[in-house]
Give the backbone structure.
Amino acid sequence: MHTKQTDNTYGRQLILMVLSAAMLLTSGLALAAGPEPQTITEGMSCAACGMYPQRYPQWQTQVIFTDGAMAAFDGNKCMFRFLLNMQKFAPERKAEQVAAIWVKDFKTGKWLDGKAAQYVIDSKEMGPMGKELIPFATRAAAEEFQKANGGIIETFANISMDTIRPLMGGMHMQMNMPRPPMQ
């Protein structure tokens, strides 16, 4: 009988340890993700070009700062221009103040961590202001899109002003209505 109680106590301790570890991991993941995406409203303008991101929901991106402020963008090209040249667009901000970067998966339309996305660059798909960097949650989804639309695939860390410059030529606002996310 004494052995049975010890086994039962051991089992409870094991369950308690597993649950505690799971709670710590879950809270750590929530902290790592940073602030959630914010709503981009009608009056907001792109922090890089001045257009209205609310009109282009498929292309919206946002940078959230440690103080809770958010900079909205009408496409990834503008967001990268902003991040790579913050002293020009927001001289009061520093890179260390960026708490989260959110982009919309082109396939699903869902928000995803911009630093984890796979970007198809210079495809035949045009954004609100011409050529774009098109984000996907997975490499497989980016490759599927690339096969149909061309371009090259890059990660967030490998995108620089040299990546963006060729996309800037002949920028013009696309007058067609945004289409629903790719299925």
